[in-house]
Amino acid sequence: MKSPCNDICTIDRSSRLCIGCGRSLSEIGEWGSASPGRQREILSLLPDRMRQLAAKAKR
């Protein structure tokens, strides 16, 4: 499965999530060895996280 990384690799200090893809550092680190099921699980979390990060950036 293709990584959700989009080369905007900056970690938000308060949420500790990447502002480019929404993953945590541990999720980024495990991606390459994660099972397809785990990758799908991570991907399912990202839309809400990205919305939260976008809302935070507007404040």
Strand count, sense and closure of the main sheet?
none
Q: What is the overall shape? A: elongated
Compute the CA-based radius of gyration.
11 Å
Instruction: Write down the secondary-structure element order.
Output: HH
Number of β-strand runs: 0
**Which regions have little confidence, pLDDT < 50, spanning 5+ residues?**
none
Q: How does this model look, in words?
A:
The protein has helices at residues 25-30, 36-58. The model has no long low-confidence stretch (mean pLDDT 96). It is built from 2 helices and no strands. It is mostly helical and 59 residues long. 49% of the residues lie in helices and 0% in strands. It has one domain (7-59). The longest helix is centred in the last third of the chain and has 23 residues, at 36-58. It is elongated.
Task: Write a concise synopsis of the structure shown.
By secondary structure, the chain is mainly α. It has one domain.
Features of this protein?
about 50% helix; elongated; 2 helices; single chain; mainly alpha; about 60 residues
